[in-house]
Amino acid sequence: MLGRLLIKSLWREKARTALIVLSVATASTLVSAFLNIAFTVTEEMAGELRSFGANIVVVPKSEPLEIVIGGLRFVSPGESAYLEEADLPRLKAIFWRHNIAAFAPFLSRVVEVEGEQALLVGTWFDKDIRIPEGKRFFTFASGAQREAASETETFRTGLKSLSRWWQVEGEWPREDEDGALIGSGLARRLKVGIGGRIRIALEKRSAVLPVRGIARTGGVEEEQIFVHLKLAQDLFGLPGKAEKIQVSALVTPDNALAARASRVDPAKLPLEEYETWYCTPYLGSVIYQIEEAIPNAKGKAIRQVSEAEGAFLARMRLTFILVIAVAILAASLAVMATMVTAIFERRQEIGLMKALGANAKHLGLFFLLEAALTGIGGGIVGYFGGLALVPLLSVRTFSLGGFGLSLSLQAAILPITLLVAVSVALLGSFFPVKEAMRFEPVKTLRGI
Amino acid sequence: MIEPLILLKAVTKDYNGKVRALDQVSLEVYPGEWAAVMGASGSGKTTLLNMIAALDRPTSGSVRVDGEDLLFLTEEDRARFRREKVGLIFQQFYLIPYLTAVENVMLAQYFHSMADAREAAEALRRVGLGERMGHYPSELSGGEQQRVCMARALINQPKIILADEPTGNLDAENEKTVMEIFHDLHRRGHTLLFVTHDPQIGTQADKIVKLEHGRVLPAFPVKALRSI
Ligand SMILES: Nc1ncnc2c1ncn2[C@@H]1O[C@H](COP(=O)(O)OP(=O)(O)OP(=O)(O)O)[C@@H](O)[C@H]1O
Ligand SMILES: [Mg+2]
Fold this sequence. Notes:
The complex is a heterodimer.
Chain A (H helix, E strand, L loop, with lengths): L1 H11 L1 H38 L4 E5 L5 E4 L2 E4 L7 E2 L15 E14 L2 E8 L3 E4 L6 E3 L5 E3 L6 E4 L1 H4 L4 E4 L9 E4 H7 L6 E6 L2 E12 L7 E5 H8 L4 E2 L1 E6 L6 H8 L7 H8 L4 H11 L3 E5 L5 H39 L1 H9 L4 H39 L8 H31 L3 H6 L2
Parallel strand pairs in A: 6-15, 12-14
Antiparallel strand pairs in A: 1-17, 1-18, 2-3, 4-16, 5-6, 5-13, 5-17, 7-10, 8-9, 11-14, 12-15, 13-14
Helix pairs in contact in A: 1-11, 2-9, 2-11, 2-12, 9-12, 11-12
Chain B lengths: L5 E10 L3 E11 L4 E6 L5 H8 L7 E6 L2 E2 L5 H11 E4 L11 H12 L4 H10 L15 H13 L5 E5 L7 H16 L3 E5 L3 H4 L4 E6 L2 E2 L5 H5 L2
Parallel strand pairs in B: 3-8, 3-9, 6-7, 7-8
Antiparallel strand pairs in B: 1-2, 1-4, 4-5, 9-10
């Protein structure tokens, strides 16, 4: 009976129902659009971080003495310690070898380029390496043996896979011939373009290199020159050396165990906990395993997303939340205005129901369900409205591009949007309905 | 000793502090009794019915129905009282416009306990509306709407039936049908209180309550009236 009552009463007031649906739909369109954008951005960022950005930097235990002057790093020669380039493939032989997504060595010095000073960075661009046979089985103090994931024999990695977000005009230099990738800022200052040549000098050594590509990175790299590692080693007179390695590792978020392990020496954890910790890809345990694998190495966690990016996201989120809050408020008020007239026009019907013995529960259920139904209608309209709005918003306002949210997240947006829509409808109906409960049946029945 | 089912003591109802619709009305109706309320237009008949149906509250005096003092009931209890104890037939036949005849009857069932389409249809057949069940109020004549209201009032088998001019809009034939139903209800022990202008109908009751300007005139035996 209630179902029939609801459907018939909604259908009778088609125009009014449509008005409420529309009010609710406006608010839920915004909610749906925002959730789509927020989820996509978060997902993309998380994805980028996980797969490409470095989250670990490995340096020698005794670091070279370095002084930073005006953004340029000067390294005191002589007693500095270095990492061995030859040790790098061992990164793919640790227990969590499979989670090492990318890495690249770095060796840099301030050099003279066409009369200017700039940082020359030697690195791997996109290098094929042979992976040494790693330990397959790891035995723990408890006697338990765990098998590490098997790996392929070769691996291709370098700056290119580590810095996917760089925009490179021209092409990446190759590993087997001399060429430079230079930052866009420096290129502008030196007035060189792709195919041009630059002369690099350090003390008595010098080299003339063709410019293969110009990189836009949004960071300090735009003032630097990148060459393949061998070239830098020769120029600096440091054959086979690297000063740091950046590593991108897939890690699981820290939990209580990871936190405990980071406070104490992991080796001092109870045996079982140590084993669990070692066999879980926490950032800490991956670093620990890297330090085990590479002699004289110290690993540190780094954050690749710049603070600015994070702040922008937070600001964007705040703006959206404010806009949505205002939209929800406005929609609720619109629903309320419509409901106030609706209830007034229906006072006789309400009086009759009361005279027939309907109590507050009957009437409340009836009117609030009616509101909830219109809310669901508005939510569904709004959900698709939001989907339609996303491309407009993202291209014009946020230039995020590349949308296409994974289905599981997409599926989460509908219920959230519906929840908001129903809340708006209920919020807008609550006070008018409460007022209706107070109607005196005799008065409303007489008032024709 | 039998307690009166409906007991009004010195009930006064003022509207806006000016119009006195009921003035010191005292009244007793016993279980199974059939009382007719008669009086000129504006004499307070509908107001009296509203008091007994717990639709309105007196300015002073007391209203006791089936052992419940209506003045002291909460809103929730008044709603329960209305749906469980009384069947109301209004002077203007109020029907929900977007529900069909049978659905209007079912609505009363729904508030009372559970809607039952079969039972509701049977009730409409009893008042001669077997062919009109799926019609909306706007598609029914005044007399037909009145009978839908009647079916709705009786559907939950209430102890007390309060009817405000139930035959006012009916032709002779339908009036006969409706009166038969009332007689039947009376026989089966329901307590009836109904308002009428028509002495022919009033005299079929066990007793007549005559109202004049909100006051009850001294009771006079129905038999005396019948013999006129
Ligand atoms: N809400 C109200 N406000 C003011 N006066 C009212 C109100 N309701 C009824 N009255 C007055 O109370 C008096 C009694 O009204 P009531 O409806 O009980 O009369 P009635 O006997 O049923 O008349 P009728 O036979 O015409 O239906 C009338 O004078 C009417 O004008
Ligand atoms: Mg009246």
